[in-house]
Amino acid sequence: MTTKTSPAPSPRTQRSILAAVFATLVAGAVVSLLLAGATLTLAQRQERVRFDRSVTQLATDIRSQLEGYDEALYAMRGTIASNPAFDRAAFHEAVTAAGTIDRLPAMHALQLAVPVARSGGASFERTSRRDTIPGEPLPPVSIHPPLSAPVSFVVDYVAPVAGNDQAFGLNLTALPGRQEVIDEAIASGDLATSSPFSLVLKDGAEQGFVRYLAVYDTGTVPPAPSTRVARTTGLIVGVFTGADILEPALADSALEISVYDTGPEYAASDVPPSPETLLFTSRPGLDPAAAEDTIRISNGERIWTGYVASRESGQQWGIPALFLVLGLGMTALLAVFVWLTGRARADAESRAEELAASERRFQQMSMTDPLTGLANRRAVMDGLHTMAEVARRQDEGMVVLFLDVDSFKAVNDESGHRTGDDVLRDIARRLSSAMRSSDLVGRVAGDEFCVAGLVSDRAAAECLVDTVQRALTAPSPGAATPAAASLSIGATLRLAPGGENAEQMLDDADDAMYEAKRRGGGQVVWYESSR
Q1: Alpha helices (runs of H) in 1-144, residue ranges in sequence order
Q2: Burial letters for 497-510: b for 16+ Cβ neighbours within 10 Å, e otherwise?
Q3: pLDDT, tens digit (0-9, with 9 covering 90-100), for 169-222
């Protein structure tokens, strides 16, 4: 019996089968590679979104850290300003009662420095050695380095005392580069920050910096820089380390950062900073040139530039590798790929929108007074500059009003700060509701407000002033302002095209306001250049 065998496939058929197998393998390989490549791109995009969000959060946290310490220094100045007989004991009591050092661990020391004439050193040392603080032994005070300037700022007291013996009697004026920062603090009335320097601590040396805040005998910051110099009675000095400011912001972050004090002149430069300006680094050897992003933080007149890198770079290969292995199931994997990329793209866009909204909210907060909801001083100055430019282009006049609550300190003292806050909020509400949408209304500082608007002539300017007065005096159920305080108003008007200078107009209105106070308050005084 003979058995028949099937004929072998023809060469042509074999070639077709081989071609189909090869095409399937190539197609599967191509789809798998495309899928892996797309997934890698998506992972990198997601990683970048997470990185950008972390960088934004890090910058916000650092700014929040600095703002918290700023508030503590300003609060201490307010305490000193409200106590004409302020001395060592009062400073110690204020620091202890507020728990300033315990609440703000990055502040290694809080110092009170006072001006000492060159001929008054021995008297200062004798007085300091006689002073005592109950329960707090003080070290003997000797001025060091010796006095050489006509007037020097010398540290009179340091909190905490323990570990800061050498700071007592320290002549700040004689330290390299300090007098320039002290002069800046006195002339500006705001915080001034030193460049980084090696801060010697009991556990070793760290890079640190010092912030100065001038105290004046007027209780508030005098309006003119020359007056501020003459009325300075002392300095509040905060001593910090870069690590204690920056490490808390990195606690829950997957970022590495090196922060350099680059100064305002470096803000737009791409040249790597000098190693001498390094304030803090979370990873020694982090090269600024290899950083994935930078952040710039304003610290008074100083500019800190942070070079940021991710600790998780290169960890986004795992998922693409897994998809490459599973890519043999081409159809199923393509469906998974479409689903994953669609969802991932939506997540990325949503996160990007959240970041943009967060940035807008942050920008709005930085330009808004938190108590009244009005424009803050920074926003007021920006608005005055913009209004001056509009007045120049449209050939219109510009009027600026400077308002100050009369006897506001008495309101706080007699009725409490909560009532004082209610008064300020009521004034803000009245001004906001009465002014035109094109007018500028803001809180400059404390109990001082600013109103500005475009006008065609003097009559229109007086009409705007009348609107302000009627708004402030109009009866309103439950309103705090008419019964609790009156306001002194200084007004200035510029009608000449191109003659509007925002800073000068605000200063002129401020001068006129002080004239209104000298006349008894509760009235409007127009600025006159001949006065």
Answers
A1: 11-81, 88-98, 100-103, 121-130
A2: eeebebeebbbbbb
A3: 999 999 998 999 999 999 988 998 888 888 777 667 788 889 999 999 887 899
